[in-house]
Amino acid sequence: MQNQKSVGIFGAGSIAEAMLDGILSQDIMPPEDIYVTNKQNDDKLQLLRERYNVKTTRDYKEILSKCRYLIIAVKPVDVHELLISLQKFITANHIIITLAAGISTKFIETVLDKKVQVIRAMPNTACKVRESATAITLGSYATKEAQDFAEEIFSSIGKVSVVEETMMDAVTGLSGSGPAYVYLLMEAMIEAGVKVGLPRWLSEELTVQTVYGAAKMVIETGESPKKLRKQVTTPGGTTMAGIKVLEKADFADLLIRAVESAAGRSKEMMKERSCLHKLENVL
Ligand SMILES: NC(=O)C1=CN([C@@H]2O[C@H](COP(=O)(O)OP(=O)(O)OC[C@H]3O[C@@H](n4cnc5c(N)ncnc54)[C@H](O)[C@@H]3O)[C@@H](O)[C@H]2O)C=CC1
Ligand SMILES: O=C(O)[C@@H]1CCC=N1
């Protein structure tokens, strides 16, 4: 018997676990309503079972018979094969939520060759601490009910924006990949602190609190990052000396190029999938 709110998660990697952590800390659904599967790592499934009390199985038919909501959390390159193995069990009652970067709702509808409800979502790993920036978009057959469920899930683990699908590559490059840019910045700040004489533990503590405090300032004051930056930068002072080095090296332009490259890669991945599987007009 299908439970209208049960969720099957295909893929037991980084993002699936981050979502599990966030969702289960919020009491929006009991762990026994969540089924998790992966391709071959039994130890990982056992770990998830023990850590979260979720159900695990490799029987896709069972998952589809029990769960209305199906979350695709496999790598983009594995999506086609997964869809083929789900195809015969999928019904009009199922709702697919795909997290795969660069894989369009149209691709999923085309491979399944059914009027299936698809929501494409791009969260980030901050789901784990219920601070994801998630964007969702609706496939051709997705209903308001499907959207409401996706919004409920993702708003329990962060902030959700509903966007046009044409924006999803940009979202992926900015906020899907974004935590990595910030972590790289933090890694560099920690090294810098050590270089100018701090013990590593203190450099880490100061860096983390600085990044957290800066983000919180933007959120809580409602001021623009630019205005807040100017407030820190005393003319002729220390910040100005630091900012000058970043400006000389075109730090802002470098970040813009990083986001452009990530967004471009998302677009490219869709083209690769379409060509490989000889699917036309699915971009
Ligand atoms: N890691 C991240 O920050 C984010 C990842 N995503 C997307 O989520 C997806 C997963 O990414 P990660 O968790 O980083 O990857 P990962 O490599 O950590 O996990 C992928 C999982 O999929 C499983 N898998 C592969 N083929 C399968 C199949 N046929 N059936 C069931 N499970 C299968 C693998 O065993 C593995 O557990 C990707 O499509 C990625 O674009 C989206 C947002 C953020
Ligand atoms: O790097 C990736 O492809 C995935 C998608 C967004 C974040 N991680």
Tell me about this structure.
The chain starts with a strand and ends in a 7-residue tail after the last helix. The chain is globular. Helix content is 54%, strand content 15%. It has an eight-stranded mixed β-sheet with strand order 3-2-1-4-5-6-7-8, with helices on both faces. The longest helix is centred in the last third of the chain and has 26 residues, at 251-276. It folds into two domains: 3-168, NAD(P)-binding Rossmann-like Domain (Rossmann fold), CATH 3.40.50; 178-260, Orthogonal Bundle (ProC C-terminal domain-like fold), CATH 1.10.3730.10. The chain has 283 residues and is of the alpha/beta class. The protein has helices at residues 14-24, 42-52, 60-66, 76-86, 105-112, 144-155, 168-176, 178-195, 200-221, 225-232, 238-248, 251-276, and strands spanning 3-10, 34-37, 55-56, 67-72, 95-98, 117-122, 132-138, 158-162. The structure holds 1,4-dihydronicotinamide adenine dinucleotide and (2S)-3,4-dihydro-2H-pyrrole-2-carboxylic acid (A1CAB).
Q: What is the H-and-E element order? A: EHEHEHEHEHEEHEHHHHHH
Q: What overall form do the CA principal axes indicate?
A: globular
Number of domains: 2
Strand content: 5-15%
User: Strand order, biggest sheet?
Assistant: 3-2-1-4-5-6-7-8
